[in-house]
Write a structure and sequence with these properties.
The chain is an all-alpha fold. It has six helices and no strands. Belongs to the Dps family.
């Protein structure tokens, strides 16, 4: 069985029982959406760390510090998504291998290291994540879980701000 299949199977498994007043089939759908975002966010967090380590150029130190702050923010989001999964009775599929197998974020280009090229590559990926997180607000709201929709709203606002911090470097 491939890792991808294993991750999907874990997603599809019936949730643990809980006293939360959301039906098991609804919780299973919410868990699937949340675990997808555990994977996407974990992946972008690791790519932001990669950028933190490998960026080069005259503006190195500012970007090195900024990328670390952005990665830390994403790490918090991974934790919030994963713990919402477990609060809903699910299994958080958040190992590095599970994240890599399921992530929809494009892999960071290995040859990119010049400061503004790195900023642009990250901006593309933050925008892509921002789009799917914004879609998840409505998706989870329509499933009747305003708490998860609120979590996605909070994360969406943070990602938009991170994207602004990145794009400001490209607009001067
Ligand atoms: Fe560091």
């Amino acid at each position: 069985m491939s890792t991808n299949t294993a991750a999907k199977k874990a997603d599809a498994a019936p949730p643990y029982p809980t006293r939360i007043d959301l039906a098991a089939d609804v919780r299973a759908k919410l868990i699937s959406v949340l675990n997808q975002h555990v994977a996407d966010t974990f992946d972008l967090m690791s790519q932001t760390k990669y950028a933190h380590w490998n960026v080069k150029g005259r503006d190195f130190i500012g970007l090195h510090k900024l990328f670390d702050e952005l990665a830390e923010l994403l790490e918090g989001h991974v934790d919030q998504f994963a713990e919402r999964v477990t609060a809903l009775g699910g299994i958080a599929t958040g190992t590095a291998r599970q994240a890599a197998a399921s992530s929809r974020v494009a892999e960071f280009s290995a040859g990119v290291y010049k400061s503004m090229d790195v900023v642009a590559a990250l901006a593309d990926r933050y925008a892509a994540l921002g789009k799917t997180v914004r879609e998840a607000i409505d998706e989870t709201d329509e499933l009747g879980d305003k708490d998860t929709a609120d979590l996605f709203t909070e994360v969406s606002r943070d990602i938009d701000q991170s994207l602004y911090f990145l794009e400001a470097h490209l607009q001067g």
